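Here is a tokenized protein:
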Amino acid sequence: MKRKVGYTWRLREVMARHQIFTDPELVPLLRERGIDLSASQVHHLVSGTSERLSLQVMAALCDVLSCTPADLVATTAENADVRKTATGDLPAPGPGDARPVVDALGCHDVIATRLASEAGEDRSRYADDHVRSPAGWAPGGTGDS
């Protein structure tokens, strides 16, 4: 089973608990600890848009803010076999479940039948069959509009 992992960068929250409310206030505090970052780099660090963080910077932040790395980073993990939808969580389609594919593609009756067969499903599961006709899609498999 695959797991989806993520994190929340909480530097701004920890800074606020120590009465540090702006990015520039952090620059001299880091510089005192041998970390020479520009105001722009500190802004990216605080806003969470920084792609990388050295352990030296992490150690300096922990010293400045009297915290641990766990205070700065909250991690999350969840099973990846559940997909998010607009209406809530639905289980991911299992092996042999061709209906989502058929629905998404708006398949022709012949294609839907073949997909169902390949998936080992009974075609009767597809009650709302549609077939292609010269005028467009027609319900019921008649082919006429």
